[in-house]
What we know:
Blueprint: H1 9-37, H2 43-49, H3 53-73, H4 82-89, H5 91-106, H6 108-121, H7 123-133, H8 143-146, H9 149-166, H10 171-201, E1 231-240, E2 246-254, E3 257-264, E4 267-270, E5 273-276, E6 284-287, E7 290-292, E8 296-301, E9 304-314, E10 317-324, H11 328-331
Antiparallel strand pairs: 1-2, 1-10, 2-3, 3-4, 3-7, 5-6, 8-9, 9-10
Amino acid sequence: xxxxxxxxxxxxxxxxxxxxxxxxxxxxxxxxxxxxxxxxxxxxxxxxxxxxxxxxxxxxxxxxxxxxxxxxxxxxxxxxxxxxxxxxxxxxxxxxxxxxxxxxxxxxxxxxxxxxxxxxxxxxxxxxxxxxxxxxxxxxxxxxxxxxxxxxxxxxxxxxxxxxxxxxxxxxxxxxxxxxxxxxxxxxxxxxxxxxxxxxxxxxxxxxxxxxxxxxxxxxxxxxxxxxxxxxxxxxxxxxxxxxxxxxxxxxxxxxxxxxxxxxxxxxxxxxxxxxxxxxxxxxxxxxxxxxxxxxxxxxxxxxxxxxxxxxxxxxxxxxxxxxxxxxxxxx
Length: 332
């Protein structure tokens, strides 16, 4: 069998970008939009599972359009591509691309967990996924194979651009492509770090979270020996349990736990707090004073630079802790 002739690097960039846009559109049009339309998830839930997906589709489509235009204007023999690459990966446009890529890629493990849990729990949703994956547009790929494609694409850009530099003779043009390749490497490094940070915060949601964390048989304090853990940080925080209820706590940040201690007379004690669940007036959510970090992630509070959220998420819902430090540096 005659071996295939390798494609010119610019042609390979164009064809692989075209294939990537097609796969992102599959994710958007066969999964994201029908999931919303059929009511499997609401808009907020989907924006957590597939953050910035529509923005990513737009950015990659615009990049592909610019490559198409360059191809047509140059009579399908592209001699200079540096300006188009820099317009995509450098400056404000590059920063925006980095931001939305980091959002999406850092949540891909979370997305896979949420979707897997939903499939186990909801037979109608499981059937929907199987039917969508059987469509010709998926090209025999499952959803779990499609979600990581953005991360895979980011790893290929530096290699593709490096190949282009090797075939570029003009020094000025080669310098532009090299600069674009360096921008791609910086974007990839940033996204990799975001992915690592998120994985450190949330390795996976608990499979069977306690219904009442304050039950002595289930509460983490009943079987947690903090003397065997490493103390990372200690200090005072305010725990905003509800809008009308705030509790002063002494916090121990351990290597795998966050412990919220309350002062009672001369002692520090562990105490659970309850919060009403809307819209059910009689529903109560119990918040444990011991938070396992492998099941948690953190978020800033937009309205208060000293505050942050700790969020524990699983298939049945989420627990949100709002904690306030005495200063911005203490929060960090």
